[in-house]
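User: Teach me something about this protein's shape.
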Amino acid sequence: MQEHVILVDRMGREIGTQEKIQAHREGRLHSAFSIFIFNAIGELLLQRRARTKYHSGGLWTNTCCSHPRPGESYYHAARRRLNEEMGFDCELTGLFNFIYHIQLDNSLFEHELDHVFVGHYNGQPTPNPNEVDDWKWINVDTLQQDVQENPEDYTYWFKLTLDRVVTQSQKITFCNET
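Assistant: First, the predicted structure itself:
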């Protein structure tokens, strides 16, 4: 079954849908979300994207990212995808959104209106092996240093958002202590 993404204009208004890979080939602006999950001691849950992914395979990135389905809210899509990809669910809080455009490997482009969410979770994920090759909890200071020293190991959108997420998430009181 083909997946479709929601095409948007720069103001975030929906203007149609397109098959996901085709939208990435053409560099069409579409809606997306990125999730950053922290634990009680402030570590961030990272995943290494499966090497078989259609782009950015084998790179470390935030806990989960994907695209909402037509008719699905960003919040519900994020909760659904977190469970599908990482095997758990938790409350999420929206932080900010931004647009980015970059050419990736395999002659594909990411051109996304990305909505960023944060959440709190203290358990062990059970990732989907079709999506995730590895995962780890990591201290934010250690992570930020590693991103500076080894930027090629991380996804583009993750490097764009990490510092802003860390700063803004420190202002949030998480209600869910799961």
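Now, about its shape. The first helix runs from residue 20 to 26. The chain has one domain: 4-169. If you'd like, I can walk through any region in more detail.
User: That's plenty for now, thanks!
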